[in-house]
Amino acid sequence: MRHAIDHKSPVPLHAQAEILLRQMISEDEYQNGKIFPNEIELAKQLAISRSTLRQAINKLVFEGLLVRRKRTGTKVAKSVVSSRSNNWLSFSQEMKLRGIAIKNFETNISWALPDEEIADFFEIKSERQVLKMEKLRGKPEGPFVYFVSYFHPRVGLTGDEDFTQPLYEMLEHEHSVIATLSKEEISAIAADEFIAGKLQIPVGSPVLFRKRFVFDHGERPIEYNLGFYKADSFVYTVESLR
Hints:
Elements: H1 13-26, H2 28-31, H3 39-46, H4 50-62, E1 66-69, E2 73-76, H5 91-97, E3 103-112, H6 116-122, E4 130-139, E5 142-151, H7 167-175, E6 179-190, H8 193-199, E7 206-216, E8 221-230
Antiparallel strand pairs: 1-2, 3-4, 4-5, 5-8, 6-7, 7-8
Helix pairs in contact: 1-4, 3-4
């Protein structure tokens, strides 16, 4: 195999695996739709564990560079435009910065079994419960966003924390977990009956759907967040430097 891991290098194995995967992504054969070797085969060829390899694959999946499907394998995603936003903040901090008064209409904390996508992102078994936080927020006159967050068990949340305070400040001060990286996916969807009821809009109304994947300084997953915004109440701005 022309791709190899240097086990004597000070560079972490998962970081080396990520570099190799990025090289494979750029190769013509994979650009043309060839399926990557399966995880067992590729991990064996690189002489690393499957969990180490999966860490690298997961990162590229959530960057939108790879697509992974059960029974069909992993392949290079079709060309997409991906933007990174610097200086990202919690929702509370974002609104405070814009001078917008925010009201919490609902806050629900529970324990839930993660679905396959969330379990895969956290690299945990699907039977392991995670803390789930739901928030309905908006201006005093009415809600305009519904959030659902899932937190990795490693964070140590108990459910008894004060979730009215800015989330990332609370994680840092009370659990010594520092959120340093956020990756996001933005799309437009039609509100189903549940989301329409939360946001007080007709079923089928346009909704801005945002997925946010939050990592700590070691690029370990912390939070899997879903946000549903009323389309006429939110503008998402990206500033890019070249």
